[in-house]
Amino acid sequence: MKIKLVVAAVAIAMSASACSKKEVDEQSAPASVSIEATDSGTGITQALLNKMGETLDIRYSVISNVPDDNCDKDASDGRCFLAEIDLTSAIDIDSKDWSIYYSQMRPIQSIVGDEFTITRVQGDLHKITPAAGFKGLKKGQTTKIQFRGELWQLSEIDGMPNYYIVADGLEPVIIRSTQLSVDPETGMEVRPYVTAFTDSETQYKRRETDKLNWATSSVLYQNNLDTPVNAALATHSILPTPTKLTVKADKPAVSLKPGLNLLFNDVEPSVVEAALQRLARIGVAQSEQGIQTELLPLTSSTAAGQYHLDISADKIQIFAADNAGFSYGLASIAALVDANKLTVSPVTVSDSPRYDFRGMHVDVSRNFHSKQLILDLLDQMAAYKLNKLHLHMADDEGWRLEIDGLPELTEVGSKRCHDLNEDTCLLPQLGSGPFSDAKVNGYYSKADYIEILKYANARQIQVIPSMDMPGHSRAAIKSMEARYRKLVAQGDQQAAEQFLLSDSQDETVYSSIQYYNDNTLNVCMESTFTFIDKVIDEIAAMHKAAGVPLDLYHIGADETAGAWIESPLCKAFVANNDKGVTSMDELGAYFIERTAKLLANKGIEAAGWSDGMSHTRPENMPSKAQSNIWDVVAHGGHKRAHQQANLGWHAVLSQPEVLYFDFPYEADPKEHGYYWASRNTNSQKIHSFMPGNLPANAEQWTDIENLPFEADDTVQKDESGKVASSPLKQAIGFAGIQGQLWSETVRSDDVAEYMMFPRVLMLAERAWHKPEWEVAYQYQGAVYNQQSGFFTEEMRQAQAEDWYQVANTVGAKELLKLDKADIAYRVPTPGAVIKDGKLFANVIFPGLDIEYRAAGGDWLAYKEGVEVIAPVEVRVIAADGKRKGRTLVVK
Question: What are the catalytic residues (predicted)?
Answer without folding.
Answer: 559
